[in-house]
Design brief:
24% strand; seven-stranded mixed beta sheet; alpha/beta; binds cytidine-5'-triphosphate; binds magnesium ion; disordered C terminus
Amino acid sequence: MSSIYAIILAGGRGERVGAGEPKQFLDLAGRPVIAWSVETFASVEGLAGMVLVGPKDMLARMESIAARYGRNLVCAVTPGGPTRQGSSWNGLSALPYERDDIVLIHDAARPFIARETIFECVEEARAHGAAAVYVRATDTVAEGSDGFVRAIPSRESLYYAQTPQCFRHWLIREAHIRARESGIDSATDDVRLALDAGHRVRIVPGESRNIKITTAFDLAVARSYAEGIEPEGEGGSPNA
Ligand code: CTP
Ligand code: MG
């Protein structure tokens, strides 16, 4: 029987938010941004463990977040790499995983992931080897270069990528190795690497509340939303 692990990526610096410290540590209604997803994953029934990937000079802080919010499920706190891809690789190398284990790779900058979405991701990754969360594009998306619009792809087929992205460990490990061998070191998501390695990736429908805090405005939105809700990891059964 394969085990399920979550890898929470918090190795970035949050430069676009432009606060005094990386966004994963900023306060969100009384707890750090990263604590929200750590608590939600820690409350997922059947989770074998969690890996936190953090800035290499801030691991003590990561350890204390693990102790406070991780419900004894954090098995490793690991330094991040120079890019998200590098941090993801470090998370994928942090434990003695079995080939068929399921890994959920999640951005710490997405505090509002729902437990149901995590369950669905795991089920789809079990069935298909790879699955990730997407929402349909609501804005028209344009392709441009040199300051001019070049194309308007049909919105019907466009999605915005969210996380978690979920894989059999062997599949995403091999995809990372293959990417590095071909000189790719800064992919912004793991699905890209799985696709390049020839795998099919199942689409799991996400929710618009699962935003990524990228800018100061996103942080303000997240704060006002967080004030009005209970964190998912607080009490309640998985089906609540
Ligand atoms: N991330 C990471 N290691 C990196 C870069 C990013 O683990 N070297 C993580 C971030 O901590 C975040 C997620 O990947 O949870 C998504 O990245 P992004 O939104 O780009 O976060 P930052 O890189 O921190 O922000 P910015 O690009 O604005 O500096
Ligand atoms: Mg970044």
